[in-house]
Amino acid sequence: MDPNLQLDASRGDVVKAIRQLAENLGRTPSSMEMDASGEFSTAVAQRLFGSWNRALRAAGFEPRMRRNISEPILLGEIDRVVEKLGYVPSSNEFEKHSRFSLGPYWRNFGNWEDSVEAAGHEPRRSIETTKPSNLYYGPNWPRQRSRALERDNHCCQTPGCDFTTQSHLERFGCDLSVHHIVPIRAYVDEEGVLDYKQANTLDNLVTVCQSHHRLWEQISPLRLDLRPK
Ligand SMILES: [Zn+2]
């Protein structure tokens, strides 16, 4: 690569190079991939934009890798994706919906199954052996979930917290979660069949924000709000 060309590079050139690389790779490029096969080095992007992530954003991409994400945040993301999908996803599926890549999970927990267990969910392998085609949270989950959100005015129900769908989206990049007060596993019988109607009653559901979801998980089956039952 000609170093003079690099000095002449404009922001527009770098944006174009990032988009080209993304097209070749079929995904958001990492800084290492940029250095290996991009038209410009990451250093050029850093010089022109201040950081690699800012250059990525200027090219219209959301940086996925964040360093030193704390364990509660990583586990909270698993909660969020499980809750959103209504079942425990495979690692591939998780990556499609997660704001984080699998890298930090492997570093912190060893593998995907152990990450899922650390978050308090049952890894998919055992669910698949019992009920292959069943949605983990049951077929009524999407409807009950939106009914709970509506009842709670799309607002975290933790006392003193005023996250709404809109402010939560701005802060965390995702919607509020709907938490099971009595955990879903309490409704699974010996044969592995979930009584989803009981598990997903509105009384058992509460809208929570990302910051408070793990707290609710920790005190489960108690509740943090004072809503009369
Ligand atoms: Zn909250």
UniProtKB/TrEMBL annotation:
<dbReference type="InterPro" id="IPR003615">
    <property type="entry name" value="HNH_nuc"/>
</dbReference>
<dbReference type="InterPro" id="IPR041025">
    <property type="entry name" value="HNH_repeat"/>
</dbReference>
<protein>
    <submittedName>
        <fullName>HNH nuclease</fullName>
    </submittedName>
</protein>
<feature type="domain" description="HNH nuclease">
    <location>
        <begin position="143"/>
        <end position="214"/>
    </location>
</feature>
<dbReference type="Pfam" id="PF18780">
    <property type="entry name" value="HNH_repeat"/>
</dbReference>
